[in-house]
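step: validate -> pass
step: tokenize input -> pass
step: predict -> running
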Amino acid sequence: MSYSAYKTLPERHIRILDLGAGAPLSPLRGSLRSISLDAVPEYEALSYTWGASTSTAALDCGGALLPLTLNLQLALARLRRLQHVRTLWIDQICINQNDVLERGQQVGLMGEIYRKARKVSIWLGEEDEHTEDVRLYLIPELLACCEKSKLEDDTRDPQPLVIEHLGLPYLNSPNWAAFRNIFHRPFFRRMLIVQEVVLGVECMVLIGSIEFRWDDIAEASFCLRHDVDRAIEAHQYVSLIRRLKTTSASLQDKSLLTLLGQSYQLLCTNPLDKVFGILGIASDIQSGDLVPDYSLTCRQVFSNAARLIISKYQPLSLLYYVKFPKSIQGLPSWVPDWTAVSPSREILALGNESRIDSVQGLGDTMPSRILATYWVPDGPYLRVLKNWERLSLRVMPYFTGEAHITLFWRVLIADGNTLGDESDKDREEMFKSWYGGFIENGFINEQPFGLEYWVKPHIATHNERALEFWTLFGGVSEGRRMITTTEGFIGLGPADALEGDHICFFPGLSVPILLRLTPSEGKFRLIGEWYLQGWMNGRQSGVIKDRSEEIVII
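step: predict -> pass
step: emit ->
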């Protein structure tokens, strides 16, 4: 079937595939027809990954052949019934991929397409020898554990409860390999799954011939949310979908900016889908605000989205998502590059500008993958940590009156407390246990720093506490560098910071922003957010002096 065989679709019409019945090894056959979305059509929608773009098979549509990728071929072979036609909507088949105008129009309808589907079938690929055990044993037991232990409302460390009540193995047991393998499949790193699964009324997961309820997989993952976070990177996206599917999700949770920030690490073949792929679930986007148009460049689409957010919704919060370096050339400094997979997270959830200070001292940049070099005696992780400790001594005594050890651990985690309601004392105990591990192993032994005296009593006493601090630390420090200022302040800033950059405060933002003057133009470029230890108290007490002025950011 040549692409020219696709007939022009009337407004608000889509194509659906009637997949012909057939034996498992027989050729795939079917036919395409056009239907109106307003006519309450009956069809299932397929959510899957395209995989390699090379065509390995074909679908016979009335004698014409439509090329299929291998993953779609396998999915259709499993979805096909023995005796009855199955009606499906599949983007690779039902959209003329060579017609840029049609692609934009159909992607604009995609939210409605998945919302109106009778069922969304999620194809994860073929099963392995343990997949059936996951369906019959692990997932039901985990769901029972969630109910029995009420883990949804409790615990930072649910695994002991799992073992105590159900006798399940620890997560490092081989018995969990099949469960992990489900979440390691490429599907869970795909951008478009968020919209497709969130909008599906009934979502079923298909792995080979084995079928799961999506809600069961999501709940099982949630039961192990703290342990799974370390073992399964995809868990955070399952958790995101689970939350967005609930009726309790607020409109703010579903704003375009929030969705962009939560899904930026997901992958898509076409980078324009970073924006277009979530329009169907963005609560603050009205018809006509952003129309999918695949003839535009990334620079145009990302800039248009940024202008919309600034003009209608969240003018300053956008700045928190600006990361460097950018991969899209010519993108304005204030426009986030949603294709840049930055290792750092936002330090804090996010008129007139007030220039308060400038950068003087720069520490080394913390590696973006610190776990790989965590226990290497002379690895980059520890070298940077020692460099930061030396730099922090330059601002002592600090204007807040904090001891060096307290100042140091607060800066390392941007004074964050994302694990719960830990007190300052709890977090300091976490730090001492964490830092003590390096001393115990002989990785840190330089006496001039002085921290060894404070942490030695905690060596080898609270391994779990050390891991908790590492979780806080890695979330904000990776990909950032420690910075001191001309006025004697200290904090964490972007890796691209340079001496002389300006630290500025914008009313409405909860942390300062780093700007760089372009002398030839007299304008500023946005470098990123900056955490300054004690800056709120400093502004209130007058230690930090405001110098207000109007500026232009390019």
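step: describe -> The first helix runs from residue 70 to 79.
step: cleanup -> pass
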